[in-house]
Amino acid sequence: MRLVATFAVAVILIYMLSFQVNELAVYLFNVIDALVHMLNELVQLVGDESVAQEVLGELLGDGAVLLQLLNANRLDLLIRTYVAVKASFFVSQGLALATSLLMMALAVVAFRNDMLSVYRGDYSKIPRVDASSNGSLMVGSLHYSGYQIAYVLWGFIIHWLFLFLLCIIVSVAVVWSFLFTVVLYFLNNSWPAIVLAVVLFVLQTLVGRYVFLQEGKLALNNRRFYFNLLYFMFFYNILLGFVSCLLRILKGAIIGVTFLSRLDQCSMPRRFEMWDPGFSAYVGFVHIENAHTNPCLVVFCHLLTESARGRQQSQLQQVSVVSSPSASKEWKRTRNRFQVAVLLAAHPELVFRRKRYLASKRKPTDEEIEGHEQRGTRL
Predict the structure, then answer these.
(1) Rounded CA gap, 322 and 330, in Å?
(2) DSSP states of 43-82
(3) Cα separation of 257 and 155, whole Å?
(4) Could you tell me which of 329, 3, 133, 65 has the C-alpha nearest to residue 56?
(5) What number of CA atoms fall less than 13 Å from residue 367's CA on the CB side?
(6) Residue 289 and residue 138: Cα distance in Å, rounded?
(7) Which of 122, 126, 90 is nearest to 111 (CA)?
(8) Each residue's pLDDT expressed in tens, for the chain with a length of 379 residues
């Protein structure tokens, strides 16, 4: 319930932020649209470009210096660029909103899977309880809801800016028609290095999988060929390492930005994962929930409370029976007889003494008295 409320608040805040930014953006775009429409009308009405520049210079003052650089073709290119930027804004907003909603849904699923794993005693993803102090786990549980909402908002904002810049670059490159020119220029000047890197990478991959493994097992085969190839590929792998390092930085940045709102995904290495405050808060929340909602623990505590409640009820019934004077005598007599029976069953030699004792305590009947009197007269 706490998790659902947390993400519900996050969705509401994202909606409010998007609505406010949209209002401001629509106002600015309307102002720019009016200015663009005015420029188009002036250029179309005034046939002579020099006259148009003089008219616009009188209207805008110092802005006439910029208008001197404009003509019909340049104005049309700027208008298409403005339309591309405007479209990029709304497209990036929609993509960022969809990405944030998707990340929240995946976070809920990941929380459920992590809780089930912890219930089973599987700590392959979540650090064990002894990895942090109980105080740190409790503080992390207190921080979780606030941290999760803040991380979701920051993730939405950064996703929006990142996608907005990406859409602007792609759309402007398409509008200005220099994307294919740049790509062709890059390939024309660096294709030998690219082809060599791809060939070496594919060659090492194929050799490593099908030549150096013994029947697919992790056992080295063709050792001489392995060491010779290792020697000759040493310097080439240095060049590949430079490209690999750039790819590592790029991948890390993309994954870090993408999963920024996911507290269940740590941004630190395994040994330093508790240095991530968001992940630390998530771990504390999971362990506190496990300590109070573990099914085995809940059932065990339920059985304990039920047995304690039944024991208390039986004691109350005994007290109620003992409290009545008539029933207390019967209960004491029954208890004493039961204890005597247990004692005699444990010690059979006491049975005869018990009979003598009962015989001495028993009162003689009238028939026995008359019998004794008759015997006395005969004597």
Answers:
(1) 10
(2) HHH--SHHHHHHHHHHHHGGGHHHHTT--HHHHHHHHHHH
(3) 7
(4) 65
(5) 0
(6) 10
(7) 126
(8) 788 888 888 889 888 888 888 888 888 888 877 777 776 666 565 554 555 555 555 555 544 444 544 555 566 677 777 788 888 888 888 898 998 899 888 988 888 888 888 888 888 888 887 777 778 888 888 888 888 889 999 989 998 998 899 888 888 777 776 666 767 777 777 777 778 888 888 888 888 878 777 776 777 777 788 888 888 888 888 888 888 888 888 888 888 888 888 888 888 877 787 888 888 888 888 888 888 888 887 788 888 888 877 777 666 555 554 455 555 677 777 878 788 787 777 777 777 777 666 666 666 666 655 655 555 544 4
- Closest to 268 (Cα-Cα) out of 259, 279, 258, 283: 279
User: Which helix (H) or strand (E) segment is 178 a member of?
Assistant: none
Radius of gyration in angstroms for the set of CA atoms belonging to the chain, rounded to a whole number: 45
H runs (alpha helix) in the chain: 2-45, 49-60, 64-67, 72-120, 134-176, 179-210, 223-232, 234-258, 277-293, 295-323, 325-346, 350-361, 366-378
> Which CA distances in Å does 94 have to 57, 105, 163, 178?
39, 17, 10, 27
Determine the 3-state secondary structure of 217 from DSSP. strand
